[in-house]
What we know:
Order of helices and strands: EEEEEEEE
Number of domains: 1
Largest sheet: 6 strands, antiparallel
Radius of gyration: 16 Å
Helix content: under 10%
Number of helices: 0
Low-confidence stretches: none
Amino acid sequence: MFGVSAGLSFVTGKEFAASGGGWIETPLGPLHAGVAVEASRLFQDVPERGPLASDLVWTTLSLRYGGDRAYWPGAHAGVGPVITAGSTWLTDAQAWIITAGLQLYGAD
């Protein structure tokens, strides 16, 4: 499964930006692995830039235990414990993210 997105975003609560991203998920035996990347560029000239010459970059890697379950003809949902880790850049400042939880619904 993969997806792409593009559009406008609202960054820092007061600035508009062009935004684009990509996402992929694949089963790995009993696990599901997912990778997501999103980048946004403000509609202004800012001298400091983060990776990919953008103002905001968000990257994550997720691992979920458990398979998908059919819930409607042609549709499946993933359920089970999940760990997500990643990094985010806002101009030249970086933060690290880690989340552990339970995915109760996720449509493919």
